[in-house]
Design goal:
The protein contains three helices and two strands. By secondary structure, it is mainly α. Helix 1 runs antiparallel to helix 2, helix 1 runs parallel beside helix 3 and helix 2 runs antiparallel to helix 3.
């Protein structure tokens, strides 16, 4: 392969990687927003905040999802910032066959990559922690809700069957006492 073919091939791979990373980050932002909407809707429908237990896990879950979404937005800001910084450097300082300028370009790129990777890791960790906190909160409160509903829904029923003869006299035939759950 010639130098130009290698550069074109590298550019194509780099473009595909950027596209996939952007797609993954966008999907994570959708998942985060969906999780926030889901937990707020479920909590409103099924759990009374006053009666629910482990509210700290609910707060940590919501906080984790907000951190995840904010880190996504911050990541988009950083991408724009570092791309502009790299383009400005290329336009103003980069010269052909300059070893020191190439090293400076690599340092700028490494700094951008390190910062974006750290931000991406924060986003992933916040999303996973938010889901874990919410699962703990749901599972604990669902158990309490089930226990409460079993106690509250039990009804004692007493059934008496009478037989009426032709003289309109009632005779107790059978009596049942049962509990309905």
């Amino acid at each position: 392969m010639t130098k130009e073919e290698i550069n074109d091939y590298r550019k194509n791979i780099d473009d595909q990687i950027k596209e996939k990373v952007s797609e993954i980050e966008t999907n994570i932002s959708y998942i985060t927003i969906a999780c926030l909407g889901f937990i707020l809707t479920i909590n409103e429908k099924f759990f009374q905040l006053v009666e629910s237990k482990l509210i700290l896990f609910l707060i940590l879950s919501i906080l984790s999802f907000v951190i995840c979404f904010m880190s996504f937005l911050f990541s988009k800001h950083l991408i724009t910032k570092y791309n502009r910084e790299l383009l400005d450097f290329i336009d103003t300082e980069l010269e052909e066959n300059s070893q020191t300028k190439d090293e400076k370009l690599i340092r700028i790129w490494e700094k951008a990559d390190k910062c974006l990777t750290r931000n991406k890791n924060i986003m992933y960790i916040a999303l996973v922690l938010g889901i874990i906190f919410e699962i703990i909160y749901f599972s604990y409160n669902i158990k309490i809700k089930k226990a409460d509903t079993n106690i509250n829904n039990e009804k004692n029923i007493s059934v008496k069957i009478y037989i009426v003869d032709s003289s309109k006299t009632e005779i107790l035939y059978k009596e049942f006492n049962d509990t309905i759950k």
